[in-house]
Amino acid sequence: MPTRRIFFNQLALDARIGILEHELRATQPLHIDAEFDVDITQEVNDQNIQSVLDYRLLRNAIVDECTHAHVNLLETLSERVVQRILNEFPLVQFVKIRISKPLAFSDCSAVGIELQRSR
C-alpha cells in the first residue's frame, strides 16, 4: 500500500523529565523530531481535511504525552509516545521519534533518544 510521510522538526516544549534532583523540581525544554508513514487510503480532497491524517492530531498527541506527567527517563517517554501514536492512529504504519534535551550538557547541542517502530 502506498504511504505518505508526515514529519515534525524540532517541536519545542517544556516537560517534567529526569531523575536528577534539579530535574525533579522544574521543567526543562525538549526538542522532538518525528516521522510517520501513513497509509494512503483515498485520494486527497483539497476541500476536505478528512481525506488525510490531520497532522494537528499527531502533534497534540505528542505534546500531551510529553507534558501530562513527570517521566524519569527519555527511553520511557519515547516508548510511551510511540505506543500512543500506534494505538490512536491506525493509518500510521511506521513511527520514528527522536526526543532530545538541548540543555543537558554544555559541550553539545543536545542529547537524546531515537526510537522507531513499524506495524
Automatic annotation (TrEMBL):
Top-rank taxon: Bacteria
Gene Ontology MF terms: dihydroneopterin aldolase activity
Keyword annotations of the record: Folate biosynthesis, Lyase
EC number: 4.1.2.25
Gene Ontology CC annotation, any one: cytoplasm
Pathway terms, separated by semicolons: Cofactor biosynthesis; tetrahydrofolate biosynthesis; 2-amino-4-hydroxy-6-hydroxymethyl-7,8-dihydropteridine diphosphate from 7,8-dihydroneopterin triphosphate: step 3/4
Class of the enzyme per the UniProt entry, highest EC level: lyase
Residues annotated as domain Dihydroneopterin aldolase/epimerase: 6-117
GO biological process: folic acid biosynthetic process; tetrahydrofolate biosynthetic process
Reaction catalyzed: 7,8-dihydroneopterin = 6-hydroxymethyl-7,8-dihydropterin + glycolaldehyde
SMART domains to which the protein is assigned, alphabetical: FolB
Pfam families linked to this entry: FolB (PF02152)
General function of this protein: Catalyzes the conversion of 7,8-dihydroneopterin to 6-hydroxymethyl-7,8-dihydropterin.
NCBIfam families: folB, folB_dom
Family: Belongs to the DHNA family.
This protein's name: 7,8-dihydroneopterin aldolase
Lineage: Bacteria, Pseudomonadati, Pseudomonadota, Betaproteobacteria, Burkholderiales
Gene: folB
